[in-house]
Amino acid sequence: MTFVDSLLGSGVFVMFLAVVVGMAFGRIDFGRGIKFGVAGPLFAGLVLGHFGFTVPSAYSGLTLALFVAAVGLIAAHEIEGTVKTYGLNFVAISVLMPTIAVILTYVWTVLVFPDASTGLIMGSFSGALTSSPGLGSAVEALPEAAAQQYQIGHSVGYVIGVLIIVMFQQLYPKLSGMDLDDEKRRFSEKVSDIAEEETDVETVAFSVLGFALVLAVGSVLGSVPIPLGPIGVITLGTTGGVLITALVLGYLGTVGPVTMRMETTILSEIRAFTLAMFLAVVGIDAGSGLVDTIAEYGVEIVVTAGVNSVAAIVVGLVVTRFVWEMDWIHAAGGITGGHTDTKGLAAAIDATGADEVAAGYGNTYPFALLAMVIYAKILVAVVPL
């Protein structure tokens, strides 16, 4: 094996190549201050993945866990104010957004594309809202042939859903002329009226023990099976387990002798670094075979997944911003949580410069995950195969 072959076969090199190229691309200004920002590594990864570059599958879970842990610890001090201010609103969003997507999917399969593969179109439901638990819920209830088609639809829809939510979070604040400083001020006013001062909790620069504790406990929590009777069993997964653990332990401040409050500046650097790695890995994984799959199975999946994702986002946007008049920090978190997409959370944090977006996401995500699992079962039951 030559030196070049060895280098190109190195997962570490390929991942950081996507990070370097993607971050450089993300800095390009396309006018009016519009930049791809942290989405750059995602697109660089898609290109590398398309041309056959790969990284070990374990990279995705590891980089995601590190990113989510940092985000949760930063946002922990705002979680009480967010829950008490908009807790029930986030629950409503977590049900409303998947409801729109599942209704549209039913329309696609029965009315718009009745001659297309039913399993393929159905897969765009869980794919568009990037819900792996939704995929698992549907697949276990389908015959083998239909389950395979569903998985293909989910895979293509997943990439489309990721791209849409990431670009929405990156571009919407700029295209709408949003004053992010004013949005952050509104957010602070909302939560500061409720959040209690906790000056007696020590803050350290960084605690390796505390950070590792979040990852360990979160991994366990994310793996705990949650029985739902006839619906089946779900888990919170890495995203839900680590994020909820980070929010709770960060809010408590200490666990025995271990200090969980760490300097935001250090956590933010960890968050930015691990975020770039995570999105690069997502892109590399998704880029493999994407073009060929779309060419083979047609544009129906792209259309259905794209419309499902956009419709859910638009409904979330209208309700949070124009009905409830939420500040954008809370609204962005709720929309990404309802979309069950960590990549969207990453993009929202990058675009707003506010890690507190994670507080709204953490409130919404678990309920949206549950809604996706239930709706996937219902969809399989009501759509004729």
TrEMBL record:
Membrane topology, record value: Multi-pass membrane protein
InterPro entries, per the entry: AAE_transporter, YidE_YbjL
Alphabetized UniProt keyword annotations: Cell membrane, Membrane, Transmembrane, Transmembrane helix, Transport
Cellular-component GO terms for this entry: plasma membrane
- Species, as recorded: Halorubrum trapanicum
- Per the record, a Pfam family? Asp-Al_Ex
Name of the protein in its database record: Putative transport protein
What NCBIfam families does the entry give?
YidE_YbjL_dupl
